[in-house]
Each structure stands twice: as structure tokens, then as C-alpha cells.
Design goal:
- The protein has four helices and six strands, in the order αββαββββαα.
């Protein structure tokens, strides 16, 4: 296998690890995407979560790690959508990273109605397969409506990612989960 083929295969495993953890409904229980490792200088950006074009989050400098945030998020969503998981998933691995598009869906605990939204992620890695740049894009309207129902708050979060995780934390505390 050539170096390029090796990198593409590893990036596919990384994308599928993300999908599989959510599909098994174990992220809310603290399971990580095992294939994911972050470089010390890794950054995250999203027009929905980080407050605009210029704001990035330095993942290496976060007080709480990415896996803990993912657990908090998935657990908060599970209160109203206990089966929230990927309904559809596609990934496009390349030599320098991968793109993934996830159609998340879950059934409302009270009505049984399915709610869903799409998320697209762009992930770049360094020579050690450590993530250096992660960008996430969501369908604003569908995700906003979902978030309002799931956690009682919706974005875009123009003051940055802390605003989103404060809403997640409030929701978890309200339901005795934090």
C-alpha cells in the first residue's frame, strides 16, 4: 500500500469512528471517537458555534476536552431524543484529511415524531494523523429548531462556543444530569 493509500484508509477509519460512536449511542456515555487525536495547535471553526468568520477555538487550550464536550452534547440531546444518531452518513477521505456529511435524526420522547438536521465536517490532519483543523457546518434552520426543542436554546452563537456549552450545561443541570 502506498503512503497516499495508507493515509486515505486511515482518514476513512477516522470518519467512520465518528459515525460508529454516535450510531451505537455511546458518545452520551463518554465513549470517544478512538481514531481521533488532536495536535497541540489544533483549531475548530464553525459559523454556527464560534461566533463568526474570524473566531476559532484552540482545541489544545480548552479547559474541557473535545470528548467531554461531545459527551455533554449527546447526553443533553438524549433527554428529548433518546435515539438521536446518524440516519445517513457519507465520507470522502483524502491524503490530507476527510469530509463527512451526517444526517442526524432522533424521535421525540413525547410525540414519537422524527426530528433531523444535517452536519458537514471538514477535517485536516498532519503527518501523524493528528487533527489540526476541524470545521463544522450545520443547516441553520433545521438545527436551530432541533436545538430549541432539545436544549431550549438555539444559535447561531455569535458570542462563541462557550455560549452553546453554557446552554448545554444548563439543560443537563435542569434534568439532573450534571
Amino acid at each position: 500500500m502506498s503512503k497516499v493509500e495508507e493515509r486515505v484508509a486511515k482518514h476513512r477509519r477516522m470518519a467512520e469512528a465518528y459515525r460508529d460512536a454516535y450510531k451505537r449511542l455511546v458518545v452520551k456515555d463518554g465513549e470517544k471517537y478512538e481514531e481521533w487525536k488532536f495536535a497541540e495547535d489544533a483549531i475548530f471553526w464553525s459559523p454556527y458555534f464560534t461566533g463568526g468568520r474570524q473566531n476559532t477555538v484552540k482545541l489544545g487550550g480548552m479547559v474541557v476536552d473535545v470528548a467531554t464536550y461531545a459527551t455533554m452534547e449527546a447526553l443533553s440531546y438524549s433527554v428529548k431524543f433518546p435515539d438521536w444518531a446518524p440516519k445517513e452518513f457519507n465520507c470522502w477521505p483524502s491524503e490530507n484529511g476527510f469530509v463527512m456529511r451526517t444526517h442526524f435524526a432522533g424521535h421525540h420522547v413525547d410525540t414519537g415524531e422524527e426530528w433531523s438536521f444535517y452536519s458537514t465536517g471538514f477535517v485536516e490532519t498532519n503527518e501523524n494523523y493528528e487533527i489540526t483543523n476541524w470545521q463544522t457546518f450545520v443547516a441553520d434552520y433545521d438545527y436551530g429548531v432541533f436545538l430549541q426543542e432539545a436544549i431550549g436554546s438555539q444559535g447561531p452563537y455569535v458570542n462563541g462556543h462557550e455560549e452553546y456549552f453554557e446552554a448545554v450545561d444548563r439543560h443537563l443541570k435542569k434534568h439532573g444530569l450534571a
